[in-house]
Amino acid sequence: MWQDRIVFEKDVVVGKPFVKGTRITVDFVLDLLANGWSYEEIGSNYPQLTEQDIRACLEYASSVIKDEKVLLI
């Protein structure tokens, strides 16, 4: 579950969601994935992140977007 790995603290990274025990934000991890980085590349460049942390970022993003509603005008 993403709730075990993704945390929010108003005084850390300006309140953005980040991976527990790091200062690496969810949006940063998502950007890396969107730019074609593999789990292995992320892990070797940011060894404090596990595959479970990366998956938690994706799960968090999925849960947020599921609740999003777009109003077409």
What labels would you give this structure?
73 residues, Arc Repressor Mutant, subunit A, two-stranded antiparallel sheet
Structural write-up:
The chain is mainly alpha-helical and 73 residues long. The protein has a single domain, classed as Arc Repressor Mutant, subunit A (Orthogonal Bundle), CATH 1.10.10.10. 44% of the residues lie in helices and 5% in strands. It has a two-stranded antiparallel sheet. Helix 1 crosses helix 3. The protein is globular. The model has no long low-confidence stretch (mean pLDDT 95).
Named CATH topology: Arc Repressor Mutant, subunit A
**Rg estimate, integer Å:** 13 Å
- The main sheet orders its strands as 1-2
| Total helical segments | 3
Task: Specify the overall morphology.
Answer: globular
Going by CATH, what is the homologous superfamily?
A: Winged helix-like DNA-binding domain superfamily/Winged helix DNA-binding domain
What ranges have pLDDT less than 50 throughout 5 or more consecutive residues?
none
Percentage of residues in DSSP E strands = 5-15%
CATH top level class name: Mainly Alpha
How many discrete structural domains?
1
The beta-strand count equals: 2
- Main pleated-sheet profile: 2 strands, antiparallel
Q: What integer is the average pLDDT? A: 95
What is the CATH architecture assignment? Answer: Orthogonal Bundle
First CA to last CA: what distance? 36 Å
What oligomeric arrangement do these chains adopt? Answer: single chain
Provide the structure class: mainly alpha
Helix content: 40-55%
Order of helices and strands: EEHHH
